[in-house]
Amino acid sequence: MAAFPAxxxxxxxxxxxxxxxxxxANRPPSPVNVTVTQxxxxxxxxxxxxPEGDIIIGYAISQQRQDGQMQRFIREVNTTNRACVxxxxxxxxxxxxxxxxxxxxxESQASKRVHFRTLKETDRLPSNSSNQGDxxxxxxxxxxxxxxxxMVIILAVLLMWAxxxxxxxxxxSGASGRL
Length: 179
Fold this sequence. Notes:
Blueprint: H1 3-26, E1 32-37, E2 44-49, E3 56-65, E4 71-77, E5 83-86, E6 94-103, E7 106-107, E8 114-117, H2 135-163
Antiparallel strand pairs: 1-2, 2-5, 3-4, 3-6, 6-7, 6-8
Keywords: Glycoprotein, Membrane, Secreted, Signal, Transmembrane, Transmembrane helix
Pfam families: fn3 (PF00041)
Signal peptide: 1-25
């Protein structure tokens, strides 16, 4: 009679082991080459690669301050982005991050831990702008000025072209003979 429970225990153990193997086989691979770039006093960009072959529907990022005062878990589903900007970081603080792939049948194992330290506010890169704000914001402001300038030029050309004859036929159609 004692042999039956022993066989049952062995059978359950074998089935459980097979089930675990199947679950692991369906999990996506862990991200590799996790790197931290664009490091600033209060933000950083994390990027990674994922081995090809499996369907990835998103990523999960675990961010932990090394002193243990803060932990954040970011989960992005329905994305193929392989980078994420981490905001609201403490100045001159140590962080540890790990990235996981999210597949159709679950999440991968976490990537290797990556350690980084945010910059001090005084470690910012010098700026030529009178606005001493964020470098990325300054770049966007310059880009907006270019777009606005382009729109003014296009509008001025269109007004000159439309007002040349009053009828809209201008130098493009050759009606006036002038350029």
